């Protein structure tokens, strides 16, 4: 797609958490919290080593069955005039190596110091990369 | 389903915003921010009169095509040891009248004073009601 509007890029890049929705082949959605970085063309997220439930890789299985995903990045405030969201409808791919994988790891380590010391590495791991198709945005007042 | 664990109920009831994922008949997910109240058996959410984009009722069309939904309610903290989420996999229905609709409106007005004066009323409107099937929960430390 063409470049995102600058204000959308800034909003996406500065937010700390999004939520990623996938759906399996039977149409059952799954939405999960989603730490991500923006690599200039796509959102990248590590399937990281935070202690996880056994079933937590369902998101990866879903993407392999059906790459269509949705991500929401929003700002909530009790003053609803400040509400804002950006929704990205896109296609996800699973990466385990390569240039985009390595660059994504660097971006995630830079954005989230929490990942340092958790074993996040260019050498191994699983990454979800979401290339935007349609981008929707909304602000209360707009 | 059987009653939710008390700590899950409390977490769900106290959070101010969840995110709702639906999927259309072609398997395209859509995730949106989701103000909701817990009515003791289900999550209720108004399709309210906040100024919306024209396409914003896509969530309602999706539910009519495919009632399978997913809701995440999470707590983010830069101290990742405090991360927590609850994910509800369930079935949604669209209500426009009836006992559950009226009770849901009352709960939403009670939880969100912002709705007062916005025209939210027992007399008309559209509500999404999500009955939990499977409930997943995760805490970093657990």
The largest sheet of chain A has its strands arranged as 2-1-5-6-7-4-3
Order of helices and strands of chain A: HEEEEHEEHE
Biggest interface in this structure? Answer: A-B, 42 and 42 residues
Number of domains of chain A: 1
Count helical runs of chain A.
Answer: 3
Q: Please give the alpha-carbon distance between the first and last residues of chain A.
A: 24 Å
Q: What proportion of the residues of chain A is helical, as a percent range?
A: 10-25%
Q: Indicate the low-confidence ranges of chain A by residue numbers.
A: none
Q: Which secondary-structure class do the elements of chain A indicate?
A: alpha+beta
Cα gyration radius of chain A (Å): 15 Å
CATH class placement of chain A: Mainly Beta
Global outline of chain A: globular
For this structure, the quaternary state is homodimer
Q: What is the number of E strands of chain A?
A: 7
Describe the sheet with the most strands of chain A. 7 strands, antiparallel
CATH fold description of chain A:
Pnp Oxidase, Chain A
Describe the protein:
Two copies of one chain form a homodimer. The first copy, chain A, is an alpha+beta fold. The first copy, chain A, has a single domain (6-134), classed as Roll (Pnp Oxidase, Chain A). Chain A is 21% helix and 37% strand. Chain A has three helices and seven strands; from the N terminus they run H-E-E-E-E-H-E-E-H-E. Chain A has helices at residues 6-14, 58-65, 99-111; strands at 18-23, 29-34, 37-38, 43-47, 68-75, 84-95, 126-139. In chain A, strands 2-1-5-6-7-4-3 form a seven-stranded antiparallel sheet. The longest helix of chain A has 13 residues, at 99-111. The A-B interface holds A 16-17, 19-23, 25-33, 50-53, 55-56, 66, 68-72, 74, 76, 78, 80, 83, 85, 87, 89, 114, 136, 138, 140-142 and B 16-17, 19-23, 25-33, 50-53, 55-56, 66, 68-72, 74, 76, 78, 80, 83, 85, 87, 89, 114, 136, 138, 140-142.
